[in-house]
Each structure stands twice: as structure tokens, then as C-alpha cells.
Design goal:
With 221 residues, the chain is α/β, with parallel strands linked by helices. 42% of the residues lie in helices and 21% in strands. The chain folds into 2 domains: 2-119, Rossmann fold (3-Layer(aba) Sandwich), CATH 3.40.50; 125-219, Winged helix-like DNA-binding domain superfamily/Winged helix DNA-binding domain (Arc Repressor Mutant, subunit A, Orthogonal Bundle).
């Protein structure tokens, strides 16, 4: 998935860009809206726009209106202007959602995933016991409840789910993360512990993730 980010606060832009990339979104970031519009005019291989309102060159509302003249691409407004009037105008100009700053970056991920679920009819999901993996959104649900997993926790837990009943060594789990991060054994154990807490699994009487002494873990649920 590719996202166009239009944000003139370079610190905020860098924060959002890094966070989106940690969820494996490709990001084209611009601080000048005219450059972003030129990019979008010449390219159509992007899936969503995250748009600030207080921009140089032209107001974010005008950018939103300009995009809507030629494209139905989803647009999320990300702005410090959080009053009701601005929100009404944003929706009238064709925005799909609105986030008032400050907000947690995780909330932006949730908004993006929700919009892409509505617009994409080919979402790949797989149900394993009580759990359902949404591979496009990088989300896992437990009996319909969306788990609040970090990117690394998602990858580790999805690996365990896809290999139900199979023992996975800590080394193989670390390799699965690829170039993103090569984790030491203690770091793997910490992430497993966090996952267990979020799925209400007791390591001493494991229902889902069983520790294999001296080796690693396997999913048994």
C-alpha cells in the first residue's frame, strides 16, 4: 500500500512517515502541496492521502477540493484545526475522515485500515481457532475483538498462527522479521510475553502459546 503524506511540519512528517513505514506502508511525503499535486497528476499507484490543512502555497481545503476534481482516492485530514466547522468543510470537500492533532499515530493506522477495508473488496483473511488474521491490514482479531499489537508483535504472532502445532525456534522467529530487526532471545521472549498478555494467555498454563524449553515456542490453541 502506498500513501501520499502532505505535511509541512517536518518533525511531524518524519514521525508519521516512520510510523507508517513500520506498518509496511510505502510513503511519498511532501511539505509543499503543489509538488504533491504534481506527483499525483503523473502517478496513480497510490492508495490513500493523509493531508494537513495549514500548508504553504495553498490551503489544505483547496488541496482536498483539487484532488476530488480528478480522483476518488481516500483522503484523511490530519490537522491541528479541530473545530466542528473545519470538520464540516473537510467532509463537504470530499474528505473521508478527520484526525485532530495531537493524536496517537496508532489512531491514524486504525483510520487508514478502516478506510481501506471499506474500499478494498479483496482483503485476505484467515481464521485459525479463535483468531482471524487480516493480512492486508496487518491485524489479528480474537473472537471478533481487534488486538492492539505492534508491528513486530503482529509478525511474530501471525507466524505462530500460520504454523499451528509446529515448534519455532527463537532463531527462526528472528529470521522471519528479516532486515527490520534481528532480535536476541530475550527480546523474542519479551514480545511473546506482551502477546500473551494481550490474548490473556498464562505462560504457566498455556492455552495458546506454549514454551518449548531450550528451543522456542509453538501455537497450540
Amino acid at each position: 500500500m502506498k500513501i501520499v503524506l502532505i505535511e509541512d511540519d517536518l518533525d511531524m512528517q518524519e514521525l508519521l512517515k516512520d510510523y507508517l513505514k513500520s506498518y509496511e506502508y510505502e510513503v511519498e511525503a511532501y511539505d509543499k502541496p503543489l509538488e504533491a499535486l504534481d506527483y499525483m497528476k503523473d502517478n496513480d499507484n497510490y492508495d490513500l492521502v493523509v493531508l494537513d490543512l495549514m500548508l504553504p502555497q495553498m490551503d489544505g481545503f483547496d488541496v482536498c477540493k483539487k484532488i476530488r476534481q480528478t480522483s476518488s482516492i481516500p483522503i484523511i485530514i490530519s490537522s491541528a484545526r479541530g473545530n466542528l466547522g473545519d470538520k464540516v468543510v473537510a467532509y463537504e470537500y470530499g474528505a473521508d475522515d478527520y484526525l485532530a492533532k495531537p493524536y496517537e499515530p496508532k489512531e491514524l493506522i486504525m483510520k487508514i485500515n478502516a478506510i481501506l477495508r471499506r474500499t478494498n473488496n479483496t482483503i485476505s483473511t484467515k481464521k485459525i481457532g479463535e483468531f482471524e488474521i487480516n493480512e492486508d491490514a496487518m491485524e489479528i482479531s480474537q473472537e471478533g475483538y481487534l488486538l492492539d499489537l505492534t508491528s513486530i508483535e503482529y509478525k511474530i504472532f501471525a507466524l505462530l498462527l500460520h504454523n499451528k502445532g509446529k515448534i519455532l525456534s527463537r532463531e527462526s522467529i528472528s529470521r522471519h522479521l528479516g532486515n527490520e530487526m534481528s532480535l536476541k532471545d530475550r527480546a523474542i521472549d519479551m514480545h511473546i510475553s506482551n502477546i500473551r498478555n494481550k490474548i490473556f494467555d498464562d505462560s504457566k498454563a498455556a492455552k495458546y502459546i506454549k514454551s518449548i524449553w531450550g528451543t522456542g515456542y509453538k501455537f497450540i490453541g
